Amino acid sequence: MSAARKIELEDFIQECFSENYTSLASETGKSLSLKQQEAAIQQVVYYLYRMWDIAEKVTETEVKLVLPGQRTRKNRKYNLLGVVDLVSDDSGTRMYDLKTLEKDVILEDKDKFKKQLSIYSHIWKGIKDQKLDGTAIIATSVPSEIKKAVKEFIEDPEARFNDFQSAIDKVEPIISVDVNETQIQNFLTEFGDTIDKIEERVFTPASVLELRTKQPGSNSDFGSLVCRNCDARYSCDSYREYIGSARGKVRTLFGQYWDDEDESAESWIIDNLYED
Amino acid sequence: MSKKQESINDLWASVGFTPNKNQEEAILYNGGPLFLPAGPGSGKTRVLLWRVVNLILYHNVEPSEIFLSTFTEKAASQLKDGLESYLSLISDDSGKIYDLSEMYIGTVHSLCQRLLTDRRFSVGRKRNKPPILLDELDQYMFVTKRSNWDAFVEASGLPKSEFNELVNEYFGDSGKSRHSAASNLISAFNRFSEELLDVDEALELGSDDDILQSVLMAYRKYLELLNSSDRKVVDFALIQAEALNFINQNERAGDVFRHVIIDEYQDTNYVQERLVFRLSEGSKNLCVVGDDDQALYRFRGATVENFVEFPERCQRDLRVEAKKIPLDVNYRSRQHIVQFCQEFINKADWSHQEDPGKHYRVHDKVITPHREERLDSVFATRATNPEDVAEEIAEHVVNLLASKKVENPNQIAFLFPSLQFRGEMNTQVQRMKNALESRGLSVYAPRAGKFLDSDEAIDMFSVIGQIFDLPNIENELGGTFRNFARWVDGLKNRGAELAAQDEKMKSYIQMRRDEISQVVKDLKLLEGTIEKNGWAKDEEYLPSVMEKALSETEGLSKKASSTLRNKLFRDTIQHRLSRKNTEGAKPPFQVNYAIRAATSLDWTVMDIYWQLCGFRHFKNMFDLAEKQGIEKPICNLSMISNYLERFVDSRPSILTADSFTGSRFTRAFWSSYIYALYARGESEYENPEVPFPKECIPFLTIHQSKGLEFPVVVLGNPRKGANARKIEEVMTLLKEKKGEPLELAPYFDIMRLYYVALSRAKNELIIANFRSRGNFINDEFKELIAESMCAPLHSHLVTEMPHAEVEEATFTKTYSYTADYLFYDLCPRQYMIFRAYDFSPSRTQGMFFGNLVHQTIEDLHNYLIAKREDEEDAA
User: Fold this and answer.
1) A267, A33 Cβ separation under 8 angstroms
2) Quick check: B181 and B708 in contact, CB under 8 A?
3) Residue A94: which H helix or E strand, with range?
4) Distance (Å, rounded) from C-alpha B189 to C-alpha B603?
5) Contact assessment for residue B271 and residue B230, using Cβ atoms and an 8 Å cutoff
6) Cα dist. B727→B36, B144, B180, B203 in Å?
7) pLDDT tens sequence across A59-94
8) Which residues of B touch A26 (CB under 8 A)?
């Protein structure tokens, strides 16, 4: 990559990033803290430089692939949708799925993602009548050991470029996934079964047991990682039971009033308070 | 395709479709502009469907080269479904799958949004940033926003105290209501935009009309305000103009689509006409389908001349002749109904006033019935007062159901010109509803009622009203305001009642009220400290000088004090201070900001909503859906969350003490936002997948019934007067157009409106024959009844009716791996609430982060793709 082009791209990223931020903020009415914004732009920069060979070759981005005419085991018709990035060149067509997760989290839950990519490549095969030559996940979350280098590079690209380059060379964001042809039918059946449950309005919440289970790549349980971000938790039987029995929590939490939103409140106020 | 699939005739044979001669010709024609005047029930949807199938299969047209617009999203998804199922017949044989996601199919509005980001039109493949789109309610809120409204008044040059009244009077309303004035302005603004009005030219043309000058000046201000933020903002009318401007930047805009097909073309407006002609300039394959006799939307700027004069305009703009193929066999209705419709529409004299031999409609059409059953099918009640008419009809409905000639009440539709009058249920509608309900029948009339009158809305807003003070509305005001005052009074009682039923909820309410009082008290104390030290509220906030004094103010709450001493807060302040002299950096925070932070609540109205949902009364509504599949309460609760989200998103979301001093919040929330929902008569929840719930008799507006058909149709109110609308006169002046004469257009419109209603019926059509003091029906109906065109309902033998099968509509839904499968897998209940019932979350930030990264990387990819293409082009 030439120096001129790099600078041009950096400007482009900054410009797009702030435009996207502004439009997402106005569409959703939400905002991100400065720290979160920094983390987001770090992911983009990390991706661009570390994955340059792929980024520059991407032929179609965020393509919506729809495979019509699917049926569940209960004979419900549906169309199957997936969104992917594609690279086509002389050596064939490869599919990439970008995830803003940490690599370890993905590795720990690899089967789940394998299922996803198997289904996506099945859609591709169905529509295009040709096989894919490779499938992989790209973890765009910046690994903790190189966060500092990425941060410093963004602040002063000229001076920090070499350190940055050698830092990113040491990590590998690509997780290649072997699509499992033989299991695809099982995956599709599972997918269809879920559709049937949705159509039949089976909406029982995750069980208390699940709420107490540690999540892949994390020390926290489902209750604090997932439920705490769910507004519907106050009216949820599982969560009520979970919080009522959680050690160290006050049992009266739901007895008198709620009080489990807490530490993030300060930064939330600062991020959202208006100025004159 | 692996093997060349037989021919389209074989496909037709395999699905049992035998087109008539004209249908076949319309499907296969492939030689430039095509004009398809299509009568009611003439199978036009099928023709469109097969036309597209034929293009894709036998003319190598890619789905991405087809632009097909329909009148509703639902019609679009039905067409798409039909296409998919026919194309899959081919796939079964050849193995080739046709992906229609690249095909343009939807309403003109949604296709305009898509055009705006379509890189085939942009110069250099760069993604065009689409403008932010305001829907109707957003637009209303934007126009009535105090500062914007004041700007319109000022721009208009009219005295502020008389502005509303003058505007209302000009558009034919009376009174000082700001709601009416806003509605009048909005519909004028929309019309100006749809006609691509040049304001300067219009000011000149309308220079003799003072109020018009004022309205135009207000419109200019409106456009200016929409353009004043960083990102362009447009309304539904302007997005079309925006799309037209956008594609016009590209010289080859006329070559992108090989086929442009427009359904319901009689209801397109000027800007839409310009758009579709521009898109078909290259290929000239512009196919329009419609029925001028069914034109319904003049009040939204549609001009039926687009359709009637289509052949001339093709000649003028595309310089080629349009092929006209009438679709004139009615497959829907029994013979008597078809005849009656013809007789009805022929009651009007459609001949052109100035141009003898020409007509204001496609006049040479003869609709022939396919169902040649000679039995009576159109009935009129006895000529009597509305109460007795309603009784007679209700009694007949009972008989029909008992005879099993219709299987389900949802096959009997009651159609009315309107269901509401000034936000309340129309009297004739109320009468019919009562008569049916008194016989144990259920009526489904979501658009007759207000969403805010639903039990769930009353309950939720009543409890919210226990936390945030409800306004005191002076009762001497008239109309809508008085009704709103009554609604608010109802909330007060209900809220107290619900709180009394649940001790926990009661103490929760008290806790939140106490928090509000506390921040208000803290504000006073802090203001005292500021005054004592001689600081100004708008000076820089310097923690080193001020923090100690402020945070140690006597009597200040712990929470306020610790906010001021909070490290994150101090860092944020210092960060700005340290960059004070940096170019482009934001200025340091003011004292005001620090005070606001110290006196802010850490919850929003949305948070309150979600927490209230945890109390028994509301939790029960979730449980009903989760455990028993009872959906109505949860659907209405979801709507409340959507409306609250709009409120929270439209302003700074943090509540601070100054929101509550001088009742600013009460004004913004209750008197302005909730009042707007009330005055606009926002209607109840409707499930797009189940438009006509089983076991209920649907009550529809005639507009709603467009494109639908029912075994039995009751015309519930055959009385509507023709009122000229001021805006038509204005547009005639400003656009110097020669359309239908102003004195005839309102009459024509009513004829067309009723023609639509009458032609919805398949087996039986019933006309309510009102005749009593103050109650009567339009002359055309009177005459037709006098000419014995209707059989008397009371002598009608239900046994002679043909049996009407229930038709199950099947939709194929698209399910996404991440948004459906994974989401459901995570937690089915969370999926239920946020995906199946579409509740608005309060502050979920996870998605925001991911979307931001993905979008930026997507932009980056597109940028690189464009670069590469440019380089390849250059090489």
Assistant:
1) yes
2) no
3) strand A92-99
4) 38
5) no
6) 30, 21, 15, 15
7) 888 788 888 888 999 999 898 988 888 887 778 889
8) 132, 231
Which of B84, B596, B849 is the closest to A40 by Cβ? B849
Distance of CA B39 to the CA centre of its chain: 26
Of B648, B828, B834, Cβ closest to residue A202: B828
The share of chain A scoring above pLDDT 90, in percent, equals 32
* Residue A252 binned pLDDT confidence (cut-offs 50, 70, 90): very low
**What are the DSSP E strand ranges found in A134-270?**
134-139, 174-176
Contacts of B683 (CB under 8 A, 6+ apart): B446, B447, B448, B449, B450, B451
Report the C-alpha gap between B735 and B728 in whole angstroms.
Answer: 10
pLDDT for res A254 = 40
SS (H, E, C) A103-140: HHHHHHCHHHHHHHHHHHHHHHHHHHCCCCCEEEEEEC
The letter for the amino acid at B87 is L
Q: Order of strands across the sheet with B442-444?
A: B442-444, B696-701, B412-416, B710-715, B761-767, B378-380, B791-792
Q: Which residue carries 């009297």 as its tokens?
A: B427
CB A215 within 8 A of CB A205: no
Residue B745: other Cβ atoms inside 10 A: 19
Angstrom distance (rounded) from CA A146 to CA A169: 10
Nearest residue in chain A measured CA to CA from B512: A257
pLDDT value, residue B2: 36
Cβ-based contacts of A66 with chain B (< 8 Å): 99-101, 814
User: Which H/E stretch holds residue B311?
Assistant: helix B310-313
Whole-number Å distance between alpha carbons of B831 and B834: 5
Q: What is the CA radius of gyration of chain B?
A: 31
Which pair of tokens denotes residue B688? 């797009």
Tell how strand A174-176 and strand B132-133 pair up. unpaired
End-to-end, the C-alpha distance of chain B in Å comes to: 34
Two tokens, residue B178: 């700001």
Instruction: Please tell me the distance from the alpha carbon of residue A97 to that of residue B711, in angstroms, as a whole number.
Output: 51
**Residue type for B461, please?**
F
What is the rounded CA–CA span in Å between residue A235 and residue B637? 13
* pLDDT of the residue at A267: 62
**Are the C-beta atoms of B297 and B10 separated by less than 8 Å?**
no
CB pair distance less than 8 Å for A83 and B507:
no
What is the spatial distance between Cα A100 and Cα A40, in angstroms, rounded to a whole number? Answer: 9
User: How much of chain A, in percent, has pLDDT values that exceed 70?
Assistant: 84
Amino acid at B504: K
Q: Do A266 and B563 touch (CB under 8 A)?
A: yes
Residues, chain B, total? 875
Ramachandran region of residue B662, left (φ > 0), alpha (ψ -120 to 50) or beta?
A: left
Question: Low-confidence residues of chain B, pLDDT below 50?
Answer: 1-4
**Interval B265-295: pLDDT, tens:** 999 999 999 999 999 999 999 999 999 999 9
Q: Are B305 and B748 in contact (CB under 8 A)?
A: no
Q: How deeply is B173 buried, as exposed, middle or buried, from its count of CB atoms within 10 A (0-12, 13-18, 19+)?
A: middle
Q: Is the pLDDT of residue A249 over 50?
A: no
| ipTM score for this prediction | 0.89
Q: Which residue of B has its CA nearest to A118?
A: B817
Helix H or strand E segment including B714? strand B710-715
Conformation bin of residue B100: beta by default, left when phi > 0, alpha when psi is -120 to 50: alpha
Which of B305, B319, B318, B327 has its CA nearest to residue B276?
B318
Residues in chain A, how many? 276
pLDDT given for residue A31 in this prediction = 72
Tell me the residue type at A129.
D
- Best residue in B659, B860, B868 to probe A by mutation, most A CBs within 10 Å? B860
SS3 B68: strand
Of B593, B815, B865, the CB nearest to A275: B593
Reported confidence tier of residue A269, pLDDT bands at 50, 70, 90: low
Q: CB distance A276–B538 less than 8 Å?
A: yes
